[in-house]
Amino acid sequence: MSAQQVLFDAPGPKGKRRIFIGNIAGVLLVAGLLAYVVVALAGQGQFAAAKWTPFLEGRTWEFFILPGLLSTLKAAAVAVVTSIVFGLVFGIGRLSHIAPIRWFAGLVVEFLRAVPVLLMMIFLWLALAEVPFITDPIFVAVVTALTLYNGSVIAELVRSGVHGLPKGQREAGMAIGMTPGKSLRSIEIPQALVAMLPAMVSQFVVILKDSALGYIIGYAELLQYSRRLGVGEGNLLQSLLIAAFIFILINFILSSVANKLSTLLSFRTGRKVKKTADTELASAAPVP
Amino acid sequence: MDNFLSLFETYDVAGAFWVNIQLTFWAAIWSFILGTILALMRISPIASLQWFGAAYVNIFRNTPLTVIIAFGILGLWGQLNVVLAEDFQLNFLRLAILGLSIYHAAFVCEAIRSGVNTVPLGQAEAARAIGLSFLPAARLVILPQALRGAVAPLGNVLIALTKNSTVAFAGSVVESSNLMKQMIEFQGDLVIPIFFVFAMGFVIIVVPIGLLTTWLSRKLAVAR
């Protein structure tokens, strides 16, 4: 139930007056907070025109922001594809009726979910630097680390998506003579994929955000380029804010798509099924 | 093997993990306080506070943590001269705790809100029907159930925070991922054993937190 309905009755005249007064106090509080930040920044000369005009010049975008954004998107896009493949393989592995495959997939997924992405990224970067035929170890390290972590999260989504399906689906598959594996592949997984689509799009937000970890190992992505720009132009604060704004914008769009998808798809999964699948999915998806 | 063991004499691995635990501990406390305040704003009937809470969550949930931590050291400290401690390393540590707290507060807020959403409308109606006014209804009926429902998502946030404490590397804090990089750079022949030591360190910290919060959330779950 919505928090509003649980916590509050429809307000009467007295309540409306209180809410109105509270609203004014709230606006003043928020405005005061923003004004304090603005005054503090202005006091340090952060609103000087020279700090912002570089963003009106074409070369700033051409040589710094767009190349940075492009490498961020490139790493994220490759990682999205490889994570889905990894997630499907290990998700199906965790549902296998052959016990050793199930154990192995479970062990790998649980291990990868417990290890910080950054730790894997640094390890892969330094380890791959020694391998002769890899020309761009930094990029490979970023994509591989993102894949290993997010792929194992998607594997969990696949598993909980299948568990969220009504038992009758599997039984129907068996009844028409399918083997457990065949029923899993052609009946359960396709339905689970539809149910988990919103959660998967939310995971893309995590991939895009985590691609910024590449900054730490020297991958030239948006944050890295923004830092270079800021150091060069003497407007580090502004460059970082612009980079953050671009990240927020893209992620906000992706999050909205995920929300739209979950309402659009709710009719396909049916109300009762959707509820159990949703709670399962919510518990499987790690937060950031 | 001797080579490998001597690494632990040269480098303070336990000390590096201790830094991660400190980062996690303080950021957990601050983000819980901030997140609770934000959740209260979002569930209050006051539109301006709702708006502020929603804006905060949407902004910080969609910003990469790396950007926030880098902003702390490059922007707050480097440009605006914000100093949280006289000592150089302690200042970086506190800036990283600030960044981690600001980022995870958005997730704590959503976790608590989702806890409130697990309470059925009938509970509130029943509370009003027996004559409880707003504050007693909230204190005796709704919030106890809401907090129990929030245990599992809050546990997930804590796990994420523990792992994300490594991102403090971007804020020049010498913690475990930073130490691992140093160790691998000086001992290139032991890349894989060194990684496994650090990875297992995190498994040992994270898995019990997961088991504990799952157990707690089942034990405290409201039977419906």
Question: Features of this protein?
Answer:
heterodimer, A: 288 residues, mainly alpha, 0% strand, flat, disordered C terminus
Task: Explain how this protein is built.
The complex is a heterodimer of chains A (about 290) and B (about 220). Chain A is mostly helical and about 290 residues long. In chain A, about 80% of the residues lie in helices and about 0% in strands. Chain B is mainly α. Chains A and B meet through helix 1, helix 2, helix 5, helix 6 and helix 9 of A and helix 3, helix 4, helix 5, helix 6 and helix 7 of B.
Helices and strands, with pairings:
The complex is a heterodimer of chains A (288) and B (224).
Chain A: H1 3-7, H2 13-43, H3 49-52, H4 58-95, H5 99-114, H6 117-128, H7 137-163, H8 167-175, H9 180-210, H10 222-233, H11 236-269, H12 271-284
Helix pairs in contact in A: 4-5, 4-7, 4-9, 4-10, 5-7, 6-7, 7-9, 7-12, 8-9, 9-11, 10-11
Chain B: H1 2-10, H2 13-43, H3 47-61, H4 65-77, H5 88-117, H6 121-129, H7 134-149, H8 151-164, H9 176-186, H10 191-220
Distance between the termini of chain A: 25 Å
Name the structural class of chain A: mainly alpha
- Biggest sheet of chain A: strands, sense, closure? none
The helix content of chain B, as a percent range, equals: over 70%
Averaged pLDDT of chain B: 91
Shape of chain B: flat
* Unreliable residue stretches of chain B: none
Number of strands of chain B: 0
